[in-house]
Amino acid sequence: MRALPVGDDALLVEVSSGEEAQALHAELLRRRAQGSLAVREIVPAARTVLLDGLADPARLASELTTSEVPPAPPRARAVVELPVRYDGPDLAEVAAHWGVLPHEVAEIHANTEFSVAFCGFAPGFGYLTGLPPRYDVPRRATPRTAVPAGAVALAGPYTGVYPRSSPGGWQLIGTTDAVLWDHTRVPAALLSPGTRVRFVPVGRS
After folding, report:
1. What residue stretches are annotated with the Carboxyltransferase domain (predicted)?
2. Among 130, 165, 167, 191, which residue is least crowded by beta carbons within 10 Å?
3. What does DSSP say about strands 10-14 and 126-129: parallel, antiparallel, or unpaired?
4. Angstrom distance (rounded) from CA 46 to CA 68
5. Domain boundaries, the chain
């Protein structure tokens, strides 16, 4: 673990894996909820956690780098279910990469419980983990100039849902009508770090 100062009152903590980042994020949230950590914002990423608004970043850096972070506790939050049609243009390519039939991609994906490791790229976009490493897939060699809103996609170890139309190089396996980002909703993002997610097949796959 390495803790780097960011400005006068922030700290970027680097760890070696996504699992460690999720565990550290959970531990920092626990400390804030208990009142033992005063911080304005805690932002997880793939292998880092940013803490902003600290009174004494150096003290916390020393404490974190000399202590052991406990594993993340089981998720207690309710599961968000996203209806999905497994009709993506890259479904056959993903099936070939996995060594299964296209309908088996849908079955494997829908039978997995995911959790949001972190958010980024676009408002409402969550990086979901849960698939075993053998199902990692590469990004497309040539990104698409426009991926439609609601596209369910895979890249590396992650699943994601595009909250709006944008360029993208992920492998598209399905579509959902769920609204991932709505500025009139509280909270605006349907998914946030720690959210448990399941994809529920609808229609024909």
Report:
1. 1-191
2. 167
3. unpaired
4. 19
5. 2-65, 79-201
CB 80 within 8 A of CB 126: no
pLDDT tens-digit readout, 23-60:
888 889 888 888 998 999 988 888 899 999 999 999 99
CA-based nearest residue to 19, from 88, 115, 95, 120: 115
Tokens of 114: 């995911």
**Residue range 2-65 in CATH 3.30.1360.40:** yes
Of the candidates 198, 197, 163, 160, the residue with the CA atom closest to the CA atom of residue 178? 163
**Bridge-based pairing state of the strands 126-129 and 41-44:** unpaired
CATH superfamily, domain 79-201, is: Cyclophilin-like (2.40.100.10)
- Residue 10 host element (H or E): strand 10-14
What is the sign, positive or negative, of the torsion defined by CA atoms of 87, 89, 94, 100? positive
The CA distance from 195 to 116, in Å, is: 5
In this prediction, residue 16 carries a pLDDT of: 87
Here the tokens at position 35 are: 């009142």
Provide the H-helix boundaries in 45-173: 57-65, 91-98, 102-110
